[in-house]
Amino acid sequence: MMGFTPALQGKTALVTGSTSGIGLGIVEALAACGANVILNGFGDTAPAFTALARSGARVGFHGADLSKPEAILDLFAYADSEFSGIDVLVNNAGIQHVAMVDEFPPDRWDAILALNLTAVFHTTRLALPHMKARNWGRIINIASVHGQVASVGKAAYVAAKHGVLGLTKVTALETARLGVTCNAICPGWVLTPLVQEQVEARASRDQLDETDARDALLAEKQPSGDFVTTEQLGAAVMFLCSDAASQMRGSAWTIDGGWTSQ
Protein backbone atom coordinates (compact mmCIF):
# COMPACT_ATOMS: atom_id res chain seq x y z
CA MET A 1 0.00 0.00 0.00
CA MET A 2 1.33 3.41 -0.93
CA GLY A 3 2.37 5.58 2.01
CA PHE A 4 0.87 9.00 2.55
CA THR A 5 3.80 10.04 4.74
CA PRO A 6 7.12 10.17 2.91
CA ALA A 7 10.32 8.60 4.16
CA LEU A 8 12.88 11.30 3.44
CA GLN A 9 15.94 9.94 5.23
CA GLY A 10 19.05 10.77 3.26
CA LYS A 11 17.28 13.44 1.20
CA THR A 12 17.82 17.18 1.46
CA ALA A 13 15.09 19.80 1.32
CA LEU A 14 15.52 23.50 0.63
CA VAL A 15 12.67 25.75 1.72
CA THR A 16 13.03 29.39 0.74
CA GLY A 17 11.74 32.02 3.13
CA SER A 18 11.85 29.51 5.97
CA THR A 19 13.09 31.35 9.04
CA SER A 20 9.49 32.03 10.12
CA GLY A 21 5.83 31.63 9.12
CA ILE A 22 4.74 29.19 6.44
CA GLY A 23 8.28 28.27 5.49
CA LEU A 24 9.29 27.33 9.02
CA GLY A 25 6.17 25.19 9.42
CA ILE A 26 7.06 23.34 6.23
CA VAL A 27 10.68 22.84 7.30
CA GLU A 28 9.53 21.37 10.62
CA ALA A 29 7.29 18.89 8.78
CA LEU A 30 10.10 17.87 6.42
CA ALA A 31 12.56 17.41 9.25
CA ALA A 32 10.05 15.27 11.15
CA CYS A 33 10.00 12.91 8.15
CA GLY A 34 13.77 12.50 8.22
CA ALA A 35 14.94 15.07 5.68
CA ASN A 36 18.03 17.18 6.04
CA VAL A 37 16.89 20.78 5.66
CA ILE A 38 18.37 24.02 4.41
CA LEU A 39 16.84 27.19 5.79
CA ASN A 40 16.84 30.39 3.81
CA GLY A 41 15.59 33.84 4.71
CA PHE A 42 16.22 37.07 6.57
CA GLY A 43 15.91 37.96 10.23
CA ASP A 44 16.74 36.02 13.36
CA THR A 45 17.42 32.35 12.64
CA ALA A 46 17.66 31.26 16.28
CA PRO A 47 13.94 30.39 16.68
CA ALA A 48 14.08 28.20 13.57
CA PHE A 49 17.16 26.32 14.75
CA THR A 50 15.57 25.89 18.18
CA ALA A 51 12.36 24.53 16.64
CA LEU A 52 14.33 22.04 14.55
CA ALA A 53 16.71 20.88 17.27
CA ARG A 54 14.25 18.26 18.53
CA SER A 55 13.97 16.60 15.10
CA GLY A 56 17.54 15.36 14.96
CA ALA A 57 17.72 16.54 11.34
CA ARG A 58 20.86 18.00 9.88
CA VAL A 59 20.11 21.71 9.43
CA GLY A 60 21.89 24.23 7.24
CA PHE A 61 21.30 27.89 6.53
CA HIS A 62 22.08 30.21 3.66
CA GLY A 63 20.88 33.81 3.72
CA ALA A 64 20.75 34.33 -0.05
CA ASP A 65 18.74 37.30 -1.24
CA LEU A 66 16.69 35.45 -3.85
CA SER A 67 15.95 38.60 -5.80
CA LYS A 68 19.58 38.40 -6.98
CA PRO A 69 20.38 35.53 -9.40
CA GLU A 70 24.02 35.44 -8.33
CA ALA A 71 22.94 34.87 -4.72
CA ILE A 72 20.82 31.92 -5.83
CA LEU A 73 23.88 30.45 -7.52
CA ASP A 74 25.77 30.79 -4.24
CA LEU A 75 22.92 29.08 -2.40
CA PHE A 76 23.02 26.09 -4.74
CA ALA A 77 26.79 25.90 -4.57
CA TYR A 78 26.43 25.70 -0.78
CA ALA A 79 23.77 22.97 -1.10
CA ASP A 80 25.99 20.97 -3.47
CA SER A 81 29.12 21.23 -1.34
CA GLU A 82 27.51 20.72 2.08
CA PHE A 83 24.53 18.46 1.28
CA SER A 84 25.31 16.91 -2.15
CA GLY A 85 22.35 18.64 -3.81
CA ILE A 86 18.67 19.30 -3.27
CA ASP A 87 16.01 16.59 -3.54
CA VAL A 88 13.00 18.59 -2.36
CA LEU A 89 12.63 22.24 -3.34
CA VAL A 90 9.89 24.31 -1.75
CA ASN A 91 9.64 27.80 -3.22
CA ASN A 92 8.00 29.81 -0.48
CA ALA A 93 9.74 33.19 -0.20
CA GLY A 94 7.61 36.18 -1.10
CA ILE A 95 6.92 39.85 -0.54
CA GLN A 96 3.86 42.02 -1.01
CA HIS A 97 2.94 45.63 -1.74
CA VAL A 98 -0.58 47.02 -2.03
CA ALA A 99 -1.41 49.92 -4.35
CA MET A 100 -3.68 50.63 -7.30
CA VAL A 101 -2.18 49.93 -10.72
CA ASP A 102 -1.82 53.58 -11.69
CA GLU A 103 -0.17 54.32 -8.33
CA PHE A 104 1.98 51.18 -8.10
CA PRO A 105 5.66 52.09 -7.65
CA PRO A 106 7.65 50.53 -10.51
CA ASP A 107 10.48 49.59 -8.17
CA ARG A 108 8.05 47.60 -5.99
CA TRP A 109 6.67 45.87 -9.08
CA ASP A 110 10.20 44.86 -10.10
CA ALA A 111 11.06 43.66 -6.59
CA ILE A 112 7.92 41.53 -6.25
CA LEU A 113 8.34 39.91 -9.67
CA ALA A 114 12.02 39.26 -8.95
CA LEU A 115 11.40 37.41 -5.68
CA ASN A 116 7.94 35.90 -6.18
CA LEU A 117 8.39 34.68 -9.76
CA THR A 118 11.86 35.02 -11.26
CA ALA A 119 13.53 33.45 -8.22
CA VAL A 120 11.24 30.42 -8.62
CA PHE A 121 12.53 30.00 -12.16
CA HIS A 122 16.15 30.19 -11.04
CA THR A 123 15.80 27.76 -8.13
CA THR A 124 13.86 25.33 -10.32
CA ARG A 125 16.36 25.36 -13.17
CA LEU A 126 19.23 24.82 -10.75
CA ALA A 127 17.50 22.03 -8.81
CA LEU A 128 16.42 19.98 -11.83
CA PRO A 129 19.79 18.54 -12.97
CA HIS A 130 20.37 16.85 -9.60
CA MET A 131 16.79 15.56 -9.47
CA LYS A 132 16.95 14.25 -13.04
CA ALA A 133 20.25 12.48 -12.34
CA ARG A 134 18.66 10.66 -9.41
CA ASN A 135 15.30 10.24 -11.15
CA TRP A 136 13.59 11.52 -8.03
CA GLY A 137 12.65 14.97 -6.88
CA ARG A 138 9.85 17.15 -5.60
CA ILE A 139 9.35 20.78 -6.54
CA ILE A 140 6.55 22.40 -4.57
CA ASN A 141 5.69 26.02 -5.24
CA ILE A 142 3.81 27.89 -2.55
CA ALA A 143 1.65 30.03 -4.80
CA SER A 144 -1.56 31.57 -3.46
CA VAL A 145 -5.25 31.86 -4.17
CA HIS A 146 -3.98 34.96 -5.95
CA GLY A 147 -2.55 32.61 -8.55
CA GLN A 148 -6.17 31.81 -9.43
CA VAL A 149 -8.16 34.95 -8.62
CA ALA A 150 -7.36 38.63 -8.20
CA SER A 151 -7.78 41.24 -5.50
CA VAL A 152 -7.78 45.00 -5.86
CA GLY A 153 -4.43 46.64 -5.16
CA LYS A 154 -2.28 43.54 -5.62
CA ALA A 155 -1.28 43.76 -9.28
CA ALA A 156 2.32 42.61 -8.92
CA TYR A 157 1.56 39.82 -6.44
CA VAL A 158 -1.33 38.48 -8.51
CA ALA A 159 0.70 38.63 -11.72
CA ALA A 160 3.63 36.84 -10.07
CA LYS A 161 1.50 34.09 -8.55
CA HIS A 162 -0.34 33.48 -11.83
CA GLY A 163 3.12 33.16 -13.38
CA VAL A 164 4.18 30.64 -10.74
CA LEU A 165 1.23 28.41 -11.65
CA GLY A 166 2.19 28.61 -15.32
CA LEU A 167 5.80 27.72 -14.55
CA THR A 168 4.58 24.85 -12.35
CA LYS A 169 2.61 23.37 -15.26
CA VAL A 170 5.47 23.68 -17.75
CA THR A 171 7.94 22.10 -15.33
CA ALA A 172 5.50 19.26 -14.67
CA LEU A 173 5.12 18.56 -18.38
CA GLU A 174 8.87 18.62 -18.98
CA THR A 175 9.43 16.06 -16.20
CA ALA A 176 6.30 13.97 -16.81
CA ARG A 177 8.20 10.77 -17.69
CA LEU A 178 10.59 11.11 -14.75
CA GLY A 179 10.39 10.49 -11.03
CA VAL A 180 10.34 14.25 -10.56
CA THR A 181 7.09 16.08 -9.85
CA CYS A 182 6.22 19.75 -9.72
CA ASN A 183 3.06 21.02 -8.06
CA ALA A 184 1.77 24.15 -6.38
CA ILE A 185 -0.12 24.82 -3.18
CA CYS A 186 -2.45 27.81 -3.18
CA PRO A 187 -3.20 28.96 0.38
CA GLY A 188 -5.82 31.47 1.34
CA TRP A 189 -5.26 33.69 4.37
CA VAL A 190 -2.52 32.35 6.66
CA LEU A 191 -1.59 34.49 9.64
CA THR A 192 1.96 35.22 8.49
CA PRO A 193 3.88 38.47 9.07
CA LEU A 194 2.72 39.61 5.58
CA VAL A 195 -0.94 39.09 6.50
CA GLN A 196 -0.43 40.55 9.97
CA GLU A 197 0.70 43.79 8.30
CA GLN A 198 -2.59 43.86 6.39
CA VAL A 199 -4.54 43.22 9.60
CA GLU A 200 -2.78 46.12 11.31
CA ALA A 201 -3.35 48.40 8.32
CA ARG A 202 -7.06 47.55 8.36
CA ALA A 203 -7.27 48.13 12.12
CA SER A 204 -5.70 51.55 11.69
CA ARG A 205 -7.78 52.49 8.65
CA ASP A 206 -11.12 51.39 10.08
CA GLN A 207 -10.40 52.17 13.74
CA LEU A 208 -10.87 48.56 14.82
CA ASP A 209 -9.12 46.50 17.46
CA GLU A 210 -6.88 43.77 16.10
CA THR A 211 -9.36 40.91 16.68
CA ASP A 212 -12.13 42.72 14.83
CA ALA A 213 -9.72 43.61 12.02
CA ARG A 214 -8.75 39.92 11.64
CA ASP A 215 -12.40 38.88 11.58
CA ALA A 216 -13.18 41.54 8.96
CA LEU A 217 -10.29 40.41 6.78
CA LEU A 218 -11.43 36.79 6.91
CA ALA A 219 -15.09 37.62 6.35
CA GLU A 220 -14.24 39.51 3.18
CA LYS A 221 -12.60 36.54 1.43
CA GLN A 222 -12.50 33.30 3.42
CA PRO A 223 -15.94 31.77 4.14
CA SER A 224 -14.66 29.38 6.81
CA GLY A 225 -13.83 32.35 9.02
CA ASP A 226 -10.57 30.68 10.04
CA PHE A 227 -6.99 31.12 8.95
CA VAL A 228 -5.21 28.28 7.16
CA THR A 229 -2.47 27.04 9.51
CA THR A 230 1.18 26.43 8.81
CA GLU A 231 0.72 22.88 10.11
CA GLN A 232 -1.93 22.22 7.46
CA LEU A 233 0.40 23.48 4.75
CA GLY A 234 3.24 21.37 6.10
CA ALA A 235 1.00 18.30 5.92
CA ALA A 236 0.10 19.14 2.31
CA VAL A 237 3.79 19.33 1.43
CA MET A 238 4.33 15.95 3.07
CA PHE A 239 1.62 14.40 0.93
CA LEU A 240 3.09 15.86 -2.25
CA CYS A 241 6.45 14.33 -1.30
CA SER A 242 4.90 10.90 -0.81
CA ASP A 243 4.53 8.03 -3.26
CA ALA A 244 0.77 8.51 -3.12
CA ALA A 245 1.21 11.84 -4.94
CA SER A 246 3.52 10.54 -7.67
CA GLN A 247 0.87 11.17 -10.34
CA MET A 248 0.03 14.65 -9.12
CA ARG A 249 1.83 16.71 -11.75
CA GLY A 250 1.24 20.36 -12.45
CA SER A 251 -1.62 20.59 -9.97
CA ALA A 252 -2.63 23.69 -8.04
CA TRP A 253 -3.83 22.42 -4.68
CA THR A 254 -6.08 25.06 -3.14
CA ILE A 255 -6.28 25.30 0.67
CA ASP A 256 -8.32 28.43 1.20
CA GLY A 257 -11.32 27.97 3.49
CA GLY A 258 -13.66 28.25 0.50
CA TRP A 259 -12.25 31.51 -0.92
CA THR A 260 -12.18 30.37 -4.56
CA SER A 261 -15.48 28.47 -4.32
CA GLN A 262 -17.44 31.72 -4.26
Give a topology summary.
Blueprint: E1 12-15, H1 21-32, E2 36-39, H2 46-53, E3 59-61, H3 69-83, E4 88-91, H4 106-134, E5 137-142, H5 155-174, E6 180-187, H6 193-206, H7 210-221, H8 230-241, E7 252-255
Parallel strand pairs: 1-2, 1-4, 2-3, 4-5, 5-6, 6-7
Your description of this structure?
The protein has 262 residues and is an alpha/beta fold. The protein folds into 2 domains: 12-188 and 228-255, Rossmann fold (3-Layer(aba) Sandwich), CATH 3.40.50.720; 191-227, no CATH class. It is built from 8 helices and 7 strands, in the order βαβαβαβαβαβαααβ. The chain has helices at 21-32, 46-53, 69-83, 106-134, 155-174, 193-206, 210-221, 230-241; strands at 12-15, 36-39, 59-61, 88-91, 137-142, 180-187, 252-255. It has a 7-stranded parallel sheet, with helices on both faces. Helix 3 packs parallel to helix 4 (106-134). The longest helix has 29 residues, at 106-134. The N and C termini lie far apart (36 Å).
Overall structural class, as computed from helix and strand content, comes to alpha/beta
Give the count of structural domains: 2
Shape: globular
- Taking all residues together, what is the mean pLDDT? 96
Please trace the helix and strand order, writing H or E for each element.
Answer: EHEHEHEHEHEHHHE
How many H/I helical runs? 8
Radius of gyration: 18 Å
What is the CATH third-level topology name of the largest domain?
Answer: Rossmann fold
Give the strand order of the largest sheet, numbering strands 1, 2, ... along the chain.
Answer: 3-2-1-4-5-6-7
The CATH homologous superfamily of the largest domain is named: NAD(P)-binding Rossmann-like Domain
Named at the architecture level, the CATH assignment of the largest domain is: 3-Layer(aba) Sandwich
